[in-house]
Structure formats: structure tokens, C-alpha cells
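Thread: Secreted protein, structure

OP (GT): Posting the sequence first so everyone is looking at the same thing. Length is 145 residues per the record. Can we get the C-alpha cells written out before standup tomorrow? I want them in the notebook alongside the other entries.
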Amino acid sequence: MFQRLRPAALIAAAMCTALLFGPTGTAQADGSPLIARVGSGDHLVAIGYEHSDYGGAALQFFSDHSDCSPTSRTHNFDTFPPGWNDRISSMRIGGGTCGAYAFDHINRHGPMVTIGGYVSSMPAGWNDRLSSLEVTYAWWWPRAR
């Protein structure tokens, strides 16, 4: 029933497993984590990704409250962890009523762009440019109405 596998077959099986399930481990080659966290609280409100199509390392944005409504507070992220400034290429903004203002500079200053829902690649001119984020009720987003 069991067959002895040759070394070439073992290597091929390991490569297929890695391609199917992705890399293992908790850090990238430069030592930075695959998943970083910013903010306080237990509610995940957004995720930024290093590459387009939600690839590469991820930065998770957490808040102490989960809702995005006309009366709720905004979720403000004035700075990102070391290594994440000007690195985000795609984003997922949580909840059907949440959207985000993404800013070019820290402390929510400078030029900004609005983001809603799942964004597989940042709008033109915004790839690897974000430095701060405000997640809020997305009055401009059709699902928020």
C-alpha cells in the first residue's frame, strides 16, 4: 500500500505543498512579520496588503469599537508600524458601511483618497503611498445607505 518515494518525488511533493498552502513561518526574509497589527482593541476594521490582489505581508487595523454608522466614532490610525509607511498596495475595509480615507502623510495630513470595500489595487498614483488611515462611516459608498 505504501510506496517508498524517491528523493525527486519528495522534493516535488514539498514544492506542490508550498505552492498550495503558501510559505510557512512567521517572518519574511528581512525578519519583518508576515502579519503586523496596528491600533488598540479587538475589532478588525481593515487590512492593508503589501502587494496587489491582497498578496504579501498584511497590516491589520484594529479598533476598540466595531461599527461604522453615522453616529459612531471614526477609527483613526495616525501612524503605521515601522516598515509599513508607503508600503500598502491593496486593502480590505471591513463591514458594509465602512469606508476609509487614506492619507499621504502621517497624522492624517496631506493628499487623501477614499476607499470602500475590497480594493485589489490602490487607485492610480496611490500604490505604496499610504502613511495614515481613517476608517469611518462610508456615506459615499452605496452599501452604506
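GT: Both are above now. Quick notes for whoever picks this up: Residues 1-27 have pLDDT under 50 and may be disordered. The CA atoms of residues 36 and 59 lie 5 Å apart.
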